[in-house]
Amino acid sequence: MAERGEPGADLATQVIRVFERQYGEPPVGRWAAPGRVNLIGEHTDYNDGFVLPFALPQRTVVAATPVDEPLWTVWSEQTGERITFDGEQADKPGHVTGWGSYVAGVVWALRDAGHPVPGARLAVASDVPPGAGLSSSAALESAVLTALADLGRLGLPVEARPALAQRAENVYAGMPCGVMDQAASIRCRAGHALFLDCRSLDLEHIPFDPATAGLAVLVIDSRAPHRHVTGEYAARRAACESAARTLGVPALRDVPLDGLAAALDRLDDDVVRHRVRHVVTENQRVLETVALLRAGDVTAIGPLMTASHASMRDDFEITVPEVDTAVAAALSAGAYGARMTGGGFGGCVLALVDADRAETVADAVTAAYVDRGFTPPVWFTAAPGAGATALS
After folding, report:
1. pLDDT in tens, 304-337
2. What total number of domains does the chain contain?
3. Are 115 and 145 spatial neighbours (Cβ–Cβ below 8 Å)?
4. What are 71-92's pLDDT values in tens digits?
5. Is 214 annotated as a binding residue?
């Protein structure tokens, strides 16, 4: 049987014990934000395009208490580390590094936007797997942002929060991600996928309940190490932005599908042509997926998922052998569609399967891994969950 990764123990209870152990008193509150998977729409967000993520049951939970000075102390149960920084340090992007940069980045982004951020003691517990393409960093940012907004009674509109969390990651932590991850972690709704226009930030909650159709979304952690840190993600973004300048458009989102061939003819570099083709066709796949889900035809999105993966593999060149093996094995075992999710170079695969065949498909992927000598994958099934919230 495949190794199965279920959402962990009751983090909301665990984080209270963690906080009390570290600070000797109970917290005044707890806040949670989920990880996410992207059903379709990869590397379209920073091209002002369209994405369709949904929130996972796995989440990051923050317990916190305010203090009367601009000082933030954070304990991470995952790493067993404590960090402390003051306002002067928070105001210097890059001063706090590692996982703490996502926390300090939120403080910086709020302060830079003029919000009176309260000092605080915080404890963090999470069952969002790091480095698996499930947006563990966005979950941390979103949970901390939600906690500080409530502690400080900042009156921060929910629609303004994803951009602040994204800015924390872009500027302070130095990761040039788009806004999708933070928007999903903050604004998703249970039983729905989040159809997001990454230019206007307009969104629509699209009903997405595979279980009612007898289906399941199988999430397979490829166990391939995430390789964003090598600069490949930044290189893809730079290529897209350069192509947009050459084509004279604000972003690749503005290249219409029926104008793609003409646009490609104007580009001199074959690699850049491939990058552009992925973005333009991926935006179209998102729109077609949304149309099918609005019509209630969940099974029909499978071929679009598979086409998305082929585009990421062949045009955007962001897959690795482990994820390609997982996709091929899932399809051979009867999945309606399968694709890598996340920024690429490792991470997870989604497979749309009959609910009663989820374990069979996962076992087929595991067998394919054994044949290739890969570390066996971890898997779970995911139903769309809710975004960031305070816990009672």
Report:
1. 999 999 999 999 999 999 999 999 999 999 999 9
2. 2
3. no
4. 999 999 999 999 999 999 999 9
5. no
Token pair listed for 97: 């590094």
Beta strands in the chain (DSSP E): 3-4, 29-40, 50-67, 71-76, 81-86, 119-126, 192-197, 203-207, 215-221, 337-341, 348-354, 378-382, 389-391
Distance CA 253, CA 354 (A): 34
261's CB contacts (< 8 A; 6+ apart) are: none
Whether residues 149 and 254 share a domain: the answer is no
Whether 18 shows a pLDDT value over 90: the answer reads yes
Q: What is the mean pLDDT of residues 123-136?
A: 89
What are phi and psi for residue 274, nearest 5 degrees? -60, -40
Whether 222 and 96 share a structural domain: no
Please determine, for residue 8, whether its predicted confidence score (pLDDT) is greater than 50: no
Domain range enclosing 62: 3-207+386-391
137 is in an annotated binding site: yes
**Residue type present at position 388:** A
233 has binding-site annotation: yes
Whose structure tokens read 């029926």?
A: 258
What residues act catalytically? 181
pLDDT > 90: percent of the chain: 89
**Does 142 show up as a binding residue in the annotation?**
no
Domain at 370, CATH number: 3.30.70.890
Quote the tokens at residue 180. 């999708």
Model pLDDT, residue 7: 45
